[in-house]
Amino acid sequence: MPRNDRHKRFPWFRLALFAGAVTGFAAAYRFALQYRERAGLPHRRPVEDSPADFGLDFETVEIPGQGYSLAGWFVPADADTAESDAAAEAGSTRKPSRPAKVATPAKGAAPAADAERRPAAPRPAVAILHGWESNRGRTFAHVRYLHAAGFHCLVFDARGHGDNQPETLPVNVPEFAEDLIAAVRWLGTRSDVSSIGVLGHSMGGAAAIVAASREPSIGAAVSLSAPADLVFMTRRTFEMADMKIPTFIATPLAWFTAAMLLIPRHHSVEDASAVVAAARYRGPLLLLHGANDNGVPVAHVELIRRAAEANRTPSDAPVEVLVLPDFGHRWLYEDPACRRKIAEFLATYLGGPIAPEAAGELAAACVVTRPSDPVFGFGGLATRTPPPNMFIPNN
Question: Which of 1, 14, 28, 162 is the right S-S partner for 157, CB 3.0 to 4.6 Å?
């Protein structure tokens, strides 16, 4: 081609590249806005059950946030649950005073009057947070076995979930973490609370790590089935929706989509990353995951573990991991090993209220089961019928 012809055609080539880039960005922007509209706002599930259905004393509470409040239940520890110091040191495994197994309550049972009884001495408390589109009632199983092990328990609805008001801006890991910090600070105002741990599942599990990295009063963090990073999870939702996007497009599109999801509340992708938070956090951390998790693959727990251990020194608390071979994304608490490990871990790092081994045995003996109406999917990607080979009943 003559040189002068190349010069004539080169501007058109650059113009074509520019037009292609603009078209691609416009398509990605439109896709991200549609994704945010569909997956950014939770579908609320009203709370139907009550601690009274399980014979537990409780207070209905409102946890203050910045310009909002969160509905919750505070379940105080029984004064007679803790062993004496001597018995605890001896590793006593006294059975709980309440029956270990409680029948599934009828739907819509009326709650009992809030309790006024308090244990005589301050006890450790655990703030418990559900996952995406769940609520405090569907997470109450954690309260039951931790209460059996002698802990105060606070379980609450994240903003836009359960009995809280609907949200107009997207909700994600940063908002879950802010709500968990608000719950921890509320617990810190109580004279009957001696120390505070956090426990979260799925998005709540990622939020537990983020909150622990930001709030010094959190003495220990337990994370179940947590996604390692919002970009990874967004990329995974493409796969779950059976979207045939080439990898070289899907990866940057996932990052752009995740960033667009967080922009309305002025958060960054790093703010929503459990991996980034785990690298900052130096306190006690327990990670649990199901080996058959088809929603958040088990590889995520290894990413979080590596990040958490990367910058720790011998003087820092250890990172503990438990992978349950027969479980998926949900209902890990049905495994006695899960309940035992969580109770032992929290008793070790929160200072009681009884010896870790005894706490673990009490928690393992408290048989709990999943809700009677399990659901499939994540938020806007949920379907009435689970796609083939995508979800299993306990995932």
Answer: 162
